[in-house]
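Hi team,

As requested, here is the filled-out complex form for the fe (ii) ion run. I kept the field names the same as last time so the parser does not choke. Let me know if anything looks off before we queue the next batch.

— J.
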Amino acid sequence: MRYLPLDEVKEGMLLARSIFGEDGRTLLARGTKLTKGYLEKLKAMNYSFLFVGDRPEDLEVKGALSEQTFSQAVKAVRELFLRTAKKQNLDFKAVLDVVDFMVDEVTDQNVLYNIIDLCNHDHYTYLHSVNVGTIATIMGRNMGLSRKELKELATGALLHDIGKMCIDNSILVKRGHLSYQEYEQMRTHAKYGYELIKGIPGLGLLSAHVAYQHHEREDGSGYPRALTGQQIHLYAKIVMVADSYDAMTSGRSYRRMLWSHEAIAQLESEAPEKYDPKMVMLLAQSVALYPVGSVVLLNNLEVGLVTDVTRKHLKIEYLTGDDRGKEVLLRPDDLLKIERRLS
Ligand SMILES: [Fe+2]
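And here is what came back:
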């Protein structure tokens, strides 16, 4: 199983992770043999990377969420966001159901957020919401939050950007720099989100505060209220780093997509001014530094492919040398270590 740029994917390779449409439906299922037609279509849809394998047994990729829950979450968030945009009555039940599944699935202590989910620009907002929801829930679990707290956190994280549905679409889709007025309007999404979530019976006020505070920063340089340090709620501090991490690793806010370990290093360099260092550390313990599919250089100068990652170990298949094709387990105190990621 590998994570390859689309240009390097060959006809006949098998898709290792299903591709979902913006409504959460499966467009191409895992195991599909990629044809020239499929590859052209994916290119036209702006996909730039794919998880692929050469043999059916290569396709065992375990994400933090099951594919079914992931797809249901995208669907629930999309429907809710679209209803918000159309100012229709909001039904949060589907989102609350999905939150239950998400919290259930991340209770396994060994699960890390280890998949860079495939995304194209057209349905970025919904996928981003689900990614941030998943990362934040894993972080909350790792700091020992109760089930009730995890559900409040997950709901706030999934809906943190719902206020964007109250912003002019021309601003949301604009590429390049926003004018001062446009930027000011964009910033109002935090307050709108707070008001929308707060108004719904059954959703906690703390979930609403996640939307309100997710653009605040430790030193008061954030918005909308320039809160500092202790004025920012724990849930918002968690979502703040999860949101930035996902934006960096999906290449939205930075010129090039950062790899997981680079994004963590970037966040570390911005702590304690922007981010709470404890939260950055928690993130580093909750996401895989080298996700499944990474090709890495080992300190024995051989090249390996990461095929599994948990909090306790990394599984690597040798791609070079006498042991080519064999798998080894790397534990934190082993002498064999990763030097750097190659692709
Ligand atoms: Fe936001």
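Two things worth flagging: The radius of gyration is 20 Å. Residues 112 and 287 are 5 Å apart (CA to CA).

Thanks,
J.
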